[in-house]
Design a protein that fits this description.
Largest sheet: 2 strands, antiparallel
Number of helices: 7
Structural class: mainly alpha
Strand content: under 5%
Strand order of the largest sheet: 1-2
Radius of gyration: 24 Å
Distance between the termini: 76 Å
Order of helices and strands: HEEHHHHHH
Length: about 150
């Protein structure tokens, strides 16, 4: 198994409650698999989410190969699994999550890395924010005030 890219890569990430419930189900299943395997278990105490059986982790390229076949089988446009990470960051930005929180979640050691990667999304969100301020345009408010008084 490969070590993380940087110190920031190894971190705790807070997940939604529904996901944690799914992980509890997985953990119970993992314990049963380990018990059934007995001395054949090769994973020690490591709890890999993706394993080939008997606790051994998948080969690093296996999820990508499986995902490619899955998208072909279901006539879906192929996107890299890593692109889902970008999708998640984009969704968080569009839902007003701070760039600092996103940086920490992604494990970027520098705020600038996150800002550079997602600047285009931040700009579109900034445009939406600016558009919401249009209702405070004094020229619009003066003409509507004059009409209301007349």
């Amino acid at each position: 198994m490969k070590a993380p890219k940087s110190k920031a890569s190894k971190r705790t990430v807070t997940m939604p409650e529904w996901f944690m419930q799914e992980m509890k189900v997985f953990h119970h299943s993992w314990k049963l698999d380990k018990l059934k395997a007995g001395e054949l278990w090769e994973g020690n105490e490591q709890q890999y989410v993706f394993q080939i059986g008997f606790g051994k982790p998948l080969y690093h390229s296996s999820p990508t190969h499986w995902w490619k076949k899955f998208t072909e089988r279901h006539n879906l446009k192929f996107i890299r699994l890593h692109d889902l990470r970008h999708s998640a960051a984009t969704i968080l930005i569009q839902n007003d999550v701070s760039m600092k929180a996103i940086q920490e979640r992604l494990g970027h050691s520098k705020h600038q890395t996150t800002a550079d990667l997602y600047a285009h999304v931040a700009q579109s969100v900034s445009r939406v924010a600016a558009d919401k301020l249009e209702k405070f345009n004094p020229r619009l408010n003066i003409s509507s005030t004059v009409r209301q008084q007349g």
